[in-house]
Every structure is written in C-alpha cells, then in structure tokens.
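step: validate -> pass
step: tokenize input -> pass
step: predict -> running
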Amino acid sequence: MSVDTVSLTGWGRTAPTTAVRFRPRGYEEAAAVVRGRGPRGVIARGLGRSPGDAAQNAGGSVLDLSGLARIGGVDAAAGVVRCDAGVSLERLLRVLLPLGWLPPVLPGTGRVTVGGAIGSDLPGLDHRRAGSFARHVSALELLTADGEVRTVLPGTALFDATAGGLGLTGVVLGATLRLRRVSTGLMSVSTERAGDLDDLLARFTAGGDRLPYASAWVDLTARGRATGRGILTRGEHATPDMRSAHAGRTRLFPRSGAASGRSPFPGLPPLPGGLLGPAAAALCNEVRYRGSRHARSGELRPVPAFFHASDALPDVRPLYGRGGLVRYRFTVGYGQEETLHRVVRRIAARRSPAVRAVLQRFGAADPGLLSFAAPGWSLELDLPASLPGLGRFLDGVDEEVAAAGGRVCLAQDSRMRPETAAAMYPRLAEFRELRARLDPAGAFRSDLSRRLGL
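step: predict -> pass
step: emit ->
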C-alpha cells in the first residue's frame, strides 16, 4: 500500500486541503487504514470527479480506492455483475457492451467509480424509468467504522443511508449490480431546437417517455424572448433492424478513447485560456444554438457517444480560471416550473458566463436518505468560482429552491450553508441519528460533512 501527503480538491478545483492519502491493494489494507485512523477520520475517494469537497478530508486520511478495480464474471442468465468499488463506469461499459449488457444507470460521464455512483446515488438520463444508481444494487460490501466488512442488502436502514450517503456510513468496497440487456451497441437519437424555456419544457413532455433517455442543453446567456432556449436530445436503444443500414460503419468504441467522432458542441469555436467571460460565453452559446438543426430524428450513435460525449473533449476547466468552477445542481417539483423560470431569468439577467447547462426530468424519489433525485426538473450548470458575488447570488437561488420544496445536490456542492441543507433534506436528522449510532467516534468524515454538519 502506498502512502503520501497530498493537497486535494474536487473536480471543480476549489478549496484545496491537505490529507494523508492511502492507496490500498486489497480489502484488508483498506480495513487497516480505517482501524488505524487518526482523530480527523477517513473518507473514501475514487477518481475525484465530485466537483466539490465530498472526497476531501483536511488534516485527516483519504482512502483512494482507484486501485481496487476488479470485475467479476458476468452472470448472463441472471443479468448481474460483481465488481470492486474502484471500477469506473467507463471501463464497466467497455467490458459489458460487447456481451450485450449495460451498467444499470449511466450518468453524463463514465469517469466515475461504482463506489462513487453508489455514494452519490447518481441519476442517469432515464431516471423517470430507472431511478438512480443504487436502486440497481442487489448487495454491497461495506467497510464499517469497526474495521469489519459487512454485506449490506437493499431495504435495510444501512443500505438506505449508504445510497447517497457520500461515504459517511462506511467505505463501499464492492457491489453486485443488476444489468440492462441491449441488442445492439447503438442508440437511435433525436434532437430538436426550442425557442425559449416554455417551448423546451413542452417538448420534453410532449413525447411522454417513448424515448426514455432525455436531456437538454439550455442557453443561460440568452435573454428577452429567447430566455431559456435550448436543444433537446432524446434517445432509445437501437434494434438490430435499425443497425442493419449502418453495419460496418459504426464502431462501439471510437479510436483513441474518444466517445464520439464529432464534438457534442457543433460549431463551438476554440477559446483562449483564462477566465470565461460573459461575452465569450454568449458567443459560444449563440454559435452552438444557431449551428444545430431545428429537428433531426433517427440518427444512430454508439452508446458511449450518446452517454459520455463530453469525455471525448479536452479538459475545459482552464477556461474557468485559476479559482476553478462551481457546479450548481438543483431540482424542483412538477408544478414549480415558475421557480425554474425565475432562476433561469436571474442567471441570464446577471450575465453569468454559463456555457454548460443541462436540464433533465426526474421520476419517483429514490429510497436513499440523502438521495438527490425527486420528481420534477433538474438543472445543472457550471460557473467560474471567481465571479464577483457568486456566493451571495447562489445563496439567493438556494432560498428560491428551498421555498419551492426543492433541493441542491449535496454530492456536487462546494458552498451551501448547513441550515439550507437541513431545510432541503427532511431525512437528514434520520441520517445523523443512524451515523451517531453506527459510528459514534466519527470514523468517516469529509470537508463536506464538517461544512454542512452531516
């Protein structure tokens, strides 16, 4: 096991803190770290894709699980796979897709570990049908505060606290996942352009769930009549008869690890390094919107190109400046569309340089005590952390969201106030009580848990 002292941040590169990092080669080495933890505790870390401070532990220990990445055999009859927590979804997809299977839920990046997907209870593009990631876990191996490894099953209090529990109930070492059968490695994709936010919401709901995967890019720099305009992308798994016309011309995994043969930002010009300003962001968004077709249907794309297109792009973080980026994701319920409108108008009126903004629909709430997804609309956006007054501005958005009964995603948060988190997550007290009972000495801690009092 390697050990070093490092400065760590989340993917957003905000608020670096220093910790002792352990890289175990097996379960017993991971258990030894938990048993020998110091007074500041320990937190698990995967590939560091959480934008905020959920996988940091200032002055304590961080358990880097990226080396625990074994994939067990796929049970084709039962449609399950057993794997270590450090396996990335990208690698899992590469192994499973040629066998006719998919991971149960695929978020917008494959560079997330299975353990991170469980700890964040990640939702995918078809949440209305499939729910979040942990709903498809049939068992997990959890390293608890006493240094023992337990098998935890769905329907138990510990499972519900661990799903979306941000690593604060223990270290997920492995899991058994129920898989999704597919007949081809292609997606049939439809895209359409919407002139404003009302138009975009109407297009989302017009087709029902006929095409189960759906998300939209929203132009948060557009104002006036065009406020909230965007591009809606929907997809379904292609059948063999759809594939026949493209046989031999579409690779499951494009060369050089690229997720797609084209950029998911058609017509987007290259930007110089440094802070992404309002004018540059507005220009990028205008080019992207105008460069898209009004409508297109039945386009075939490889599965990785549909789900993980952004993974093929260069690292965009330098565009946000030395201060890093803040990722803000919230959800509000159906019937609260006016709140969504107000937030979009506020961001547009402030001329915030938001190039990345993703809108989704969620279905039934997941059982995790701190799971993020709930029935309604989810908007996720990135902003430069160095924007003047950003903290105060987002505090105000927090208030709007909380007043509408919505919530901000804890797994991506880097700046929320503890009282706001408590107002948004009604089962937080239940989570705290269970943690206090199972881990009275506070073995599992993070910068996020201290900041929000989790």
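step: describe -> The first strand starts at residue 2 and ends at 8.
step: cleanup -> pass
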